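Supplementary Methods, section 5.1.

A reviewer requested that the exact input to the structure prediction be made available. We therefore reproduce it here, unchanged from the version used in the analyses.
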Amino acid sequence: MKAFGFIFALLGMTAVLSCDNGESKEEEKEEGKVLLLKVDCLKSEFESGSEVTLSMPTKTFTLDDETVEPSDFGYIKLFCTETNDTIFHGTVVWMGVGEIIHPEKWTEAGDFEVAPERNIIIPSGGFENACEQGESAEYDDEWVSNVWGAVQQLKKVREYIAANPDQKIKVLRYQPEAGGSAATHDKWILFVKR
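The structure derived from this sequence is encoded token-by-token as follows.
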């Protein structure tokens, strides 16, 4: 009889430990996500977003870039340094317009839920350039108001910031055309780590 009591106690402890392990696995899974937000450079309008899941969870988030300047065709790729996952890949075309190759799927702006709160949130770490290539930005009050203001009210963005409030948002000015006269196709890509 004592043996059965011991077995039931052991099974109970295993069940409790399994539940705790599941919660930490879910937290780890969430730490392995990056939200990409595409904002039109000229209009400062949010266009679409994409959620990328890293191959493994990581508490830190740094980016490395691989850039090929276009003689006819070029590209920019951004990789998560910690996992070597491709986070972004966009082509650049001389006297033409490139396209975003990765991520493949983007959710349209209208499909994102807006948070009911009307306060403005800014990550305590601020903003930084995603790479040294291309045109860098001055993240002054006007930029924050226009570009960050276009996405900071999204519920998904607020969830990411709440989960990782000290992060620095990575920012890329994606310029898909080279040799053209205007920046009509340029996009701000913001990388928010969960």
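The chain is about 25% helix and 30% strand. These observations are discussed further in the main text.
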